[in-house]
Structure prediction request, 186 residues.
Amino acid sequence: MDKVKLGDIAEVVSGLSYRRYRVEDGQSYDVIVQRSIKRDGILSDFESMRLKEPKPHYFTRKGDILMKTPYPYDVVCVGQEGLVVSDRIAIIRLNEGYDPSFIAHLLTNAHIKKQLHELGSTEKIPHTSLKEIKELELVVPDYSTQVKCGELLDTINEKIAEDKRVVSYDRDLKEGILNRIWEDFK
Prediction:
């Protein structure tokens, strides 16, 4: 295992400040905004915007890692190319020899959250900078171990998402039964 700084194993850049790029007659793009990055590595709920052509580095590439810079610093590994990444989201592009899925999971670990807390601002809603993200210290095993751990952690995240869907379904079922009883009473 090696201890490395994130900035030594990846390029870390900011997303697009889309307010400057908005135009009425521009091309429509799906934009990853703050709410698009959810806990447990889920990426959804994009915002469609008309923009003048953003620079290529603002578009997602397979294997990009996105991290919210305001608290709670949610992280996701991107599988879809061509989405525009908005501001207040760090785009992390790893060097060869590092597994994006594993590093994304690693960035959600309590040790990283502690580092971010120590480095971050003391405002009401804490946030971090790209410079601070580059300074994060990671403990990284060899590549094959990264891949195996990444796959296992992805499977666990999928199970968590499925469990949440089941709980939501059960809550809806319960509410439906109670509403039916209420309707029968009228």
